């Protein structure tokens, strides 16, 4: 029996269109999808997307794809689906890594990403380090050495978004209009990482979140942002194709209790599933 896990994200620090590429920087949190595979009878009907990953992994390593029929798979995931929290990326990455170990083959995160992106758009949480990634075609990847020195309060909106369908929307002519704004947002995020300046980084992620209001509107975003900075958060980020908003903060500075008390008075909590604090961790799938 082989077990592998991969973390979720709480949206993206940046997502936009630059130089003809759709790019994002998602960040991993301590919420996981766990995949178990072993020899047995295929249950593809329960996990069609994961079995697609198994078939592609078999093909990648030169095996007969029909071997999937002899592989039993189970997914135990705490990641909400359809919220823009990289649930599918986590499922696929963990499945591909577990399959490679089952076959006694070696694979790295870039190879895992190349297989996953054949199936659907892929979050950069598939890499261990923070990464700027072409999430639609995988044609560009830039890794950052610096870590995020902060925590996140994830506000999860009700409802779901079909990320695959959303990313198929033809927004090219709209997004190209905002390329200068995207460049400014990315520049702030990158400078913040390079200089370990979380205020600058969050300024960039906040800008990216508000640019995305043109494509996927979040009703309470401005109120949430204003209250977050009132209580000394660095800023916000969002899932650009989902329902979550992240409050980025230093636990020594942010008054979380006052924020949580007051936010009930400015937004309708019937529109939200939950508010949960997460740690930001190393990305990528791993065996355990």
How would you describe what is shown here?
The protein is an alpha+beta fold and 288 residues long. The protein has a single domain (2-287), classed as Ribosomal Protein S5, domain 2, CATH 3.30.230.120. It is 33% helix and 27% strand. The protein has helices spanning 48-60, 87-102, 109-116, 163-167, 172-175, 179-195, 198-211, 221-230, 256-263, and strands spanning 2-18, 21-39, 71-77, 131-134, 141-143, 151-157, 235-238, 244-249, 272-279, 286-287. The longest helix is centred in the middle third of the chain and has 17 residues, at 179-195. It is globular, with a radius of gyration of 19 Å.
What is the strand and helix layout of this fold?
Layout lengths: L1 E17 L2 E19 L8 H13 L10 E7 L9 H16 L6 H8 L14 E4 L6 E3 L7 E7 L5 H5 L4 H4 L3 H17 L2 H14 L9 H10 L4 E4 L5 E6 L6 H8 L8 E8 L6 E2 L1
Antiparallel strand pairs: 1-2, 1-10, 2-3, 2-4, 4-5, 6-8, 6-9, 7-8
Protein name: GHMP kinase N-terminal domain-containing protein
GO molecular function, one term: kinase activity
Organism: Senegalia massiliensis
* H/I helix tally: 9
Helix and strand content put the structural class at alpha+beta
Distance between the termini: 11 Å
Q: Helices and strands, in N-to-C order?
A: EEHEHHEEEHHHHHEEHEE
pLDDT averaged residue by residue: 95
Q: Supply the CATH class.
A: Alpha Beta
CATH architectural arrangement: 2-Layer Sandwich
Evaluate the radius of gyration: 19 Å
Estimate the helix proportion, in percent.
25-40%
Q: Sheet with the most strands?
A: 6 strands, antiparallel
> In CATH terms, what is the fold-level topology?
Ribosomal Protein S5, domain 2
Question: Oligomeric state of the chains?
Answer: single chain
Poorly predicted sequence stretches spanning 5 or more consecutive residues: none
* Overall tally of domains: 1
Strand composition percent: 25-35%
